[in-house]
Amino acid sequence: MSEIQATLHIGKNGLTEGILSSIKANFKNHNDVKIIVLKGAGRDRKTTREIAEKIRAELGKKYVFKIIGFTIFIKKWRKEK
After folding, report:
1. Using CA of residue 16, residue 22, residue 25, residue 26, what is the dihedral sign?
2. Furthest-apart CA pair in the chain: how many Å?
3. Which residue has the higher pLDDT, 42 or 63?
4. Which residues contact 67 (CB under 8 A, 6 or more apart)?
5. Domain ranges of the chain
6. Residue 79 pLDDT > 70
């Protein structure tokens, strides 16, 4: 990966408007964002998937995500030339 990815943490308050706006702001400078779900957010696989689905619904169809453990990797699709 030649580009540094942004990293965010989701804690006990869960997915808030502040985190969503931070994710959107990070995509202005980065193509990849890594989101770590901490124990306070309800650390199980179902909760992690629900958080990822909510983020993707908020961002739109131009984004894809991959879940590894309790980390969500969100990638922005490239624009067509």
Report:
1. negative
2. 43
3. 63
4. 45, 48, 49, 52, 73
5. 6-76
6. no
